[in-house]
Structure formats: structure tokens, C-alpha cells
Amino acid sequence: MNRRRGLDFRRAGGRRKISNVVWWVLSAIVITLFILILSKATQIEPRPSIPERRYRHEKLVEGMNMTEEMLSPTSFARQVNDQIALAKAFVVIAKESKNLQFAWDLSAQIRNSQLLLSTAAASRRPLTVLDSEPTIRDMAVLLYQAQQLHYDSATMIMRLKATIQSLEAQMSSVTEKSAKYAQIAAEEVPKSLYCLGVRLTTDWFQNSELQGKLAERSYALASKLTDNSLYHFCVFSDNIVATSVVVNSTALNSKAPEKVVFHLVTNEINYAAMKSWFAMDMDNLRGVTVEVQKFEDFRWLNASYVPVLKQLQDSDTQSYYFSGHNDDGRTPIKFRNPKYLSMLNHLRFYIPEVFPALKKMVFLDDDVVVQKDLSALFSIDLNRNVNGAVETCMETFHRYHKYLNYSHPLIRSHFDPDACGWAFGMNVFDLVEWRKRNVTGIYHYWQEKNVDRTLWKLGTLPPGLLTFYGLTEALEPSWHVLGLGYANVDARVIDKGAVLHFNGNLKPWLKIGMEKYKPLWEKYVDYSHPFMQQCNFH
Ligand SMILES: *[C@@H]1O[C@H](CO)[C@@H](O)[C@H](O)[C@H]1NC(C)=O
Ligand SMILES: *[C@@H]1O[C@H](CO)[C@@H](O)[C@H](O)[C@H]1NC(C)=O
Ligand SMILES: *[C@@H]1O[C@H](CO)[C@@H](O)[C@H](O)[C@H]1NC(C)=O
Ligand SMILES: *[C@@H]1O[C@H](CO)[C@@H](O)[C@H](O)[C@H]1NC(C)=O
Ligand SMILES: *[C@@H]1O[C@H](CO)[C@@H](O)[C@H](O)[C@H]1NC(C)=O
Predict the structure, then answer these.
(1) How far apart are the CA of 533 and the centre of ligand 5, in A?
(2) From 56's CA, which of 29, 65, 305, 357 has a CA 20 to 30 Å away?
(3) pLDDT tens digits, 212-232
(4) CA 287 – ligand 5 centroid, Å
């Protein structure tokens, strides 16, 4: 009896628990309804239901699949990113509402989240739950508080979004315009340069003595070209004066110039002129060896092997780059410049093919000046990486997501959007590792995937970021100082820099070049040379 009663009692207790749960749920629903009604009643402006639908619509357009998103290896990074974006909006609202303490809290948490992302990017592995859970939770608490403060009200966010959009529109129209003009100015081949090319070419074919001198010297130096105990540099360029500055400045600042070997590759048009220039100048280069080739001589560089050449034969690509009328000018002019498809630009992806006997190569762009001895570059340990380069993500915008189309599933699934970008212009390449890891094959894979230009639009940096992803070793930043062709660079940084890079449109050999940086470059130009004088270089 007793036992049974006990049982009944327990059952009754169970029933009581169930009814408790029902009670709680009911009261929760009532409270929610109450709050809903209250908030409706207190709202002065009607709360539009459009934003939410719009949001969903955008998702569909971008082809985002939430299931896929959650399965994607970068999804924690994405969550953190989304939180950061929302938090940034709330910071603005908090400041507008004079809630400075809360704005400060949000900003601090934003920095925490960014730190998490950049640490993950630096360690080159996706975020795990364990790494990200505390940060995501802390941020969620703040975002929840923001919602309590009604910072998430639809009208508030709409108003903010409109402000941001109009600011962005203003910015992009200004930058696009100025970029367009600078590009046109930059593309105009300076008359003097053209004159010099013609002058040198004529001289070359008339001057058999010069030809003989070069031939004799080439013969004597042939063994140096493949000697792996020397310092090998390559420059791929059609600009004689710029190339001359690279070679001259390296020679003058080298502690062991006799161990420096320059491998220049140019095109058919400039081949004779370039040979002529360096044959004349040979005696002033402190024993530096210079070899000149033209890419038209490379038999392996043909459309069946090289995707860029194959794509150039495609009429669609040709009209994209050369006619420029098929998208209402939406693509900025510089994206369409045939220069970005030029073979001299893409040769950097074939260095092991161009120099089959070499093991290590320092690649220099033609718009650099060398200020220090570079021999130490050849003994830097690249930790079995292929590319040694300086990173450029000190500013947050030089990360992968800036260069690549992250709406594309191939990009999304392979590359961390917050991975740090790096620069071409002064790179140490380990050609042994390059061959071993079939890096050219990786480059071909991505170049072929981009036949419709949906992964990236222009240039060699985006395919470079894809090709050398996880194969790049960060070098000390003073090895390669960037920005002298478009930005203000700290004078102390310039002073310490081993290689200065005039990347950007304001090249030092152009009228539009930045006057304050021109002397760094002009120092290495021989303006008294008769040909330079005849061609009005000054
Ligand atoms: C989303 O992706 C998952 C896994 O890739 C797939 O099973 C599902 O059908 C997709 N859903 C939609 C709506 O495309
Ligand atoms: C094109 O390049 C490939 C691979 O480098 C080579 O095998 C082939 O002979 C070349 N074709 C021509 C026509 O030269
Ligand atoms: C290198 O990669 C390409 C393209 O991915 C492939 O066709 C080729 O067989 C690879 N070569 C070697 C030696 O693995
Ligand atoms: C980015 O990739 C998506 C998906 O392939 C494509 O629809 C879109 O046009 C691409 N964007 C650009 C700017 O090419
Ligand atoms: C190389 O630079 C030196 C000094 O900076 C200069 O005197 C010389 O004329 C330059 N040589 C050439 C060929 O430009």
C-alpha cells in the first residue's frame, strides 16, 4: 500500500513537473506577446518589414546556401566577421546616441575579434569552435545589449545603411575618376623612352664592334649564368631606363658585385636596344654580369602550355581587353588594360622554366631602386616555402578578401578571406621547392578556372596569392618598401629600406611621378649620356 501510494505520489509529482513546464511556456508566450504589443504601440514610425525580406533576397542572389555555409571550413571566421560588421554599425549608433561607454566596449570587443581572425590567418588554419567560442560569446552578449537598447530597430539601421551607402558611392566615384586619369597618363609611353629605344637599336645594328664586344664577353661569362654559388636576379621588362636603374643601383650598392648576375628578359621590340645599352655600360657595372633574353625565344611559352596565351587567342577575351565597349564602362579602365595580360608580366610564374639550371632567384620589378647589399637574401631560410615576400596586411584592407571574389564557391572553400596579402616586386624564389611542388601547375589550374574572369579581374597579384597560398614566407618589411608610386611613405622607413618600390601609377620616369621621391631613382640615371641627351631626358 505504502509503496503504491509512494508511486502514485511520484507520478503526481511528475504530472506537477509537466504542468510546471506548460505553465512556464505559456507565461513566456504571454510575456512575448505582451512585449510585442507594447513595442508596436510605442513605435511612432511603422516598422517596415522590408529589410528582413531584402536580406533574404540578397542571400539568394549571392547564391549563399546556409547549410553549405555552416559546413564550410571558414564558417567560424565568417561568424566572427558578421559580428564585427554588426558591431561596427552599433558603434556608430552608440556614438550618435551619446552612449560613449558602450561604444568603447563594443570597439574593444571588435579589436578582440579582429585579433582572433588575424591570429588564425597568420597560423594558416581555420578557426575551431575552441578558439572562437569565447570571443563569439562575448561579442554576442554585447550585441544582445545593443538590441536591448533598441539599436537594432529597423529604421535606425536603414538610416545608417543609407548614410554608409552614400558615403561609399561618393568615395568610389572620386577614386575611380582620379585612377582613370592617372592610368591614361601612365600608359602614354614617354616619347623620350621611345626615342632611346630607336637610337639604341639603330646603333646596335650599325655598330659591329659593340656586337663583337658583347659576344666575346658573353662567351667568357657563360658559366656564371648557371653557377648556383652566385647571386641571381631577374627583371622582366620592356623599359630600358627603368631596368638600367635596377641593375645600376644593385651594382653600386653591392658588397660583392662580381657575384651578382642579372637575367633580363624583354620582348622582340626592345631586345637589340637592351643588349646595346648594357654592352656599352658593362665597364661601369663593377663586374656585375648581365644577360639579356627575349621571351619570343622561349619555345615552351606557347598556347598549348600557357593558359594566358590560350585565353588571349579567345575572341571573347580579346574584345574584353581591347574593345572595351561591352559592359557600359562598369569595369574601370585599368582592369581592361592589355598590359595586364602581357607576357612579360606573367613570366614571373615561369621562372623555373626560364632558368632551368638555377636553384634560387631574386625577382625584381622594373619600378624598384636597390639601396642596400642584397646578398643576405640568398641565405634566408624560407622554411621550405617557395616564395619569400613582405606582407602587406598591416592595413586591414590588404587581405585576401580584397583581391578575390569571395562570392565564388571555389574561392570561399579554398582560401581564408583574412589571410594576409603580400607583394610582388622583390621576391626570393626557391626554384627547387617550386619544381618539387609543381607550383606552375597550381598557377595553371587557377588561371584556367578564371577563364570567365569571375575569380579575379586583373593583374598578377591575385593569381599570385592563389598560387603561393601556404607557400609564402614573410620577410622582414625593410627588405621591400612599397608605395612610392602613390602614397606618402615615412622618411625613416625609406631610409632603412633595401629595395624601394614605386608601385602605383606615379612612376619616377613620368612627368606625373612624385617629385619628392624622384631623386631616389634619378640618382642612378646617367643624364649626361649622349643618347639620353639626344632623346631629351633631363
Ligand atoms: C545546400 O547545400 C547542401 C549541402 O551542400 C545541399 O544538400 C542542399 O540541397 C543545398 N540547399 C539548397 C537550397 O541549395
Ligand atoms: C609548347 O610547349 C610544350 C610544353 O612546354 C612543348 O612540349 C611543345 O613542344 C611546345 N609546342 C610548340 C609548337 O613549340
Ligand atoms: C603539375 O600540375 C599539372 C596541372 O595541375 C599536371 O597536369 C601535371 O601533371 C603536374 N606535374 C607533375 C610533375 O606533377
Ligand atoms: C563572383 O562569383 C560569382 C559566382 O561564380 C559570380 O556569379 C559573380 O559574377 C562573380 N563576381 C564578379 C565580379 O565577377
Ligand atoms: C649609375 O649610377 C651612378 C651613380 O648613382 C651614375 O653616376 C651613373 O651614371 C649611372 N650609370 C648609368 C648607366 O646610368
Answers:
(1) 14
(2) 29
(3) 888 888 888 899 999 999 999
(4) 14
